[in-house]
Amino acid sequence: MKKWITLLATICSFHLFAQQDIKLEEAKFKTGDNSNWKELSFDDSQWGNIKSSANWEFQSYPDYNGYAWYRFHFKLPSSIKDKSLWKDSLRIALGKIDDDDEAYLNGILIGKTQGWNIFREYHIAANNPAILWDADNVIAIRVLDTGGGGGMYGKDQHISMMDIIDGISMKLQFNATEAAIVIHNSVSKKIEGKLIVSVTDPETNKVFENVIKQVSVKAGENFLLKTANDVSKKLLITANFEESLTHKTIHISQSTPYILTPAPSAFPKINGATVFGVRPGSPVLYKIAATGEKPLQYAVENLPEGLKVDAATGIIAGTIKLPGTYTMKLKVKNPKGIAARTFKIKVGDVLALTPPMGWNSWNCWGLSVSTEKVESSAKALIDKGLINHGWSFINIDDGWEEPTRDADGNVISNSKFPDMKVLSDWLHNNGLKFGIYSSPGPKTCGGYLGSYQHEINDATTYAKWGIDYLKYDWCSYENIAGKDTSLATYQKPYAIMRDALLKQNRDIVFSLCQYGMKNVWEWGDKVNGNCWRTTGDIEDTWESLKSIGFSQTVQHKYTKPGRWSDPDMLIVGQVGWGENLHPTRLTPDEQYTHISLWSLLSAPLLIGCDISKLDDFTLNLLSNDEVIAVNQDALGKEAKQILNKGSYQVWIKELEDGSHAVGIFNLSDNYQTIQINWNDIDLKKANAKKVRDLWRQKDLGIYKNLFGTKVAPHGVTLIKVID
Ligand code: GAL
Question: N or C: which end of the chain has fewer CB within 10 A?
């Protein structure tokens, strides 16, 4: 039985006829709360204006938490009802709302939802007396924001009639070799329509397949059409389904999960960071990351006193007492040859001299994380070879804590984690590092026990368990901070935990998580943060990736070794935030963009999927040493957005060897040939430059002034430019 993976991503899937929708893009807005504000007759002409696409923090209401109201005014022409087949219900799509909402149409409640990460789509009968056809209407939304981002966000907030097309879905599925188009009918009757499929090479426009088919699908059933028989190659599959009664259409246009990273050679090669930071006297644990035919033999020349290297595993361990920079040579050999590379251990007070790389449980398992789930991803990280490319942290996010402390005030792990020390020793013996999660508030975001007023206890417990990384998440500290929004209040809980961590006899990387409040990138180093989340939570959609990734325009000023801006964890592979995982909804090109951009941004790289279910495409995506080297570059710069032309952007990162990594991103929905002039991206020094394609690991040639590249929709060309 071949395993089909569904690409839920349908970036280009839309219903034509969308022009009949009524857009809800801009509203009248006021903070505060008053039940009269739901009424149609209320006069809001003195209120401010706000867009529904972004939280109010991005629209002149920084730091506001509490109630606020949106009021959308619109006319509802009965022609939209007449033009629909069913004519029976109206859809009111409000996007996402942070945190809770109550939505009223002309004063009458039409829906309410609690929780910030949930799409609001309310349906009401077309004959509901609340609807005023061919007249002025008002949708008033009462929003409660309990902290962090607040208000409406997302895209495509609109009103439209529900129709037969809403009961039909079309998606692409892939197994290791083939693709299939699946049409599902959830309408209670048989549906019919015309399906047109084409498979082309998006680079050359060469057509490989063209199929036109009359399709009929019984109620509740699927129609499946196999197509494209080598999905590891870059092919564009386009499918158009036209429902025969309404002539409304569903459209998909998507790339195959094509592989770019060449397979590793049998010859030994050393990968990963070239520098490692540790405090004097703290335990060193560093596994030399290397590929090549097994078995590999490891050795280190000039190994500092106090350290040992295991020749069979490449794990360097021990302690160094005196501060300083220790330079050594790593050596890895097998019968095919020998690889050598300079490596530095900097003994001082800065940790995480390159961005942390590893795995975190949240984006896959959410609060359902358990020892078995952690071990299974850790084991897969080793078995599938990710460890050989520098991936090393295994971090448990929220959900591991027992609700109450022991009699001495110590935090204890719950029944899903029977023995943290055993888990920790197992990870360390395998050359991996161990991370954990807590909140400075009494409760974590998931409602588990936080560290409030027990910071020393907790830091001591973490050290006893052998913890190497702490993600410290603001959450219920919001209630402690109350109405005090001063900078000192935002810094205080992080400074308390900083002091507690510094008292421990081991190094614990300190990851601040407070969603970027008070421009944390400007002061995260003062509380000894090694990384700091700059935004709210990411999710596996292009909108989320784009708004988070491409908004990191000022952080580079503050980034340096040991101080990294964190635009949140990776959303590739099988994700789900709970028991039910699904393949990421990002297209392959969006995933290349994700890893390229995070590498340019020097972001911590924390894989957020179940690694035991890693498919070939995702493994290939996470194993490109030349791309990872951009992220791990020892100079520690973060990329700058050097060109923003709307439909495309160019980001540039200075590297230790004097060269530059350049990401050319196509933000549009169509293929684009993008030409950049070295002068436009501040690479003036010399005219002719050598260009290397990092994903393909291939030299492209010498380019005098201009470099042109054809880039996929939402995709990237990532190059290294060498003088
Ligand atoms: C959120 C945080 C997520 C995850 C979650 C756990 O605040 O941003 O990354 O840690 O809490 O409850």
Answer: N
